[in-house]
Design goal:
It contains 9 helices and no strands. By secondary structure, the chain is mainly alpha-helical. Helix 2 packs parallel to helix 8, helix 4 runs antiparallel to helix 5 and helix 5 runs antiparallel to helix 9. It is globular, with a radius of gyration of 19 Å.
Length: 223
């Protein structure tokens, strides 16, 4: 029989492989800036589109329910059998991983339009996972996985061209900080709302993610 100890021990393998890959990459490409032909957008500080993209990312983070809350709901409500919950998560993450590759390719061709379309679709995972059972909940998890894949592959791709090379690390760090703080605050609010009203939680999640689309559209116009 498996155990938490075995599961976490297996995760160590991927963690060590990641460290090895980063080490090898640092030896092969000690100065990654030299690989770039362009110099980025020449502006003082950060541009208006950058800040709008940061706001959009914050809306997505704040409205995106963490899987721990979703799994808790599945277990508490009985909408998904306990042994099946990890399978739903695995399916969502697998599709998210595949989606990240596909979305990246589409983004190279269609630009911001594909990002807006993907986040519009994934915004509706909440009513499916919190109100649905069995296959409906699985469909919600698939949308959730699509959203995760888009976050991992598209958000950084959008802001990278807006940052000069000398401030790119700072720009990414600032973006991640805003995203992380928004995720924490959104998760905290949704945890409270879960005990009060699941309907309000779902509305909160969907509305915030849809607001991100407005911020993306404004950023596109300002770019």
């Amino acid at each position: 029989m498996g155990s938490y100890r075995t599961g976490f021990a297996l995760l160590l393998v991927s963690a060590l492989l990641t460290i090895v890959i980063v080490f090898v990459a640092s030896k092969l490409f000690p100065n990654p800036r030299e690989l770039e032909a362009g110099h980025g957008l020449e502006t003082k500080g950060f541009s208006r589109p950058y800040w709008l993209y940061l706001v959009a990312g914050a809306f997505i983070a704040a409205g995106f329910a963490d899987f721990s809350l979703i799994a808790y709901h599945f277990q508490r409500s009985g909408s998904v059998a306990g042994p099946v919950i990890p399978i739903y998560y695995a399916v969502a993450m697998a599709l998210g991983g595949v989606g990240a590759l596909v979305f990246g390719k589409w983004f190279d061709k269609a630009g911001l339009s594909i990002l807006i379309a993907v986040f519009f679709v994934s915004a509706f995972f909440a009513p499916l996972v919190f109100f649905g059972r069995s296959w409906i909940a699985l469909c919600g998890m698939i949308l959730w996985g699509i959203g995760m894949g888009a976050q991992n592959s598209l958000l950084k791709s959008v802001i990278a061209p807006l940052l000069r090379r000398d401030v790119r690390a700072t720009g990414f760090g600032l973006f991640d900080t805003g995203f992380g703080v928004a995720w924490f605050l959104g998760s905290w609010v949704m945890g409270i709302l879960y005990e009060k009203s699941i309907l309000i939680l779902v509305i909160f999640s969907v509305v915030l993610q849809l607001l991100s689309l407005l911020a993306f559209a404004l950023a596109k116009r300002a770019d």
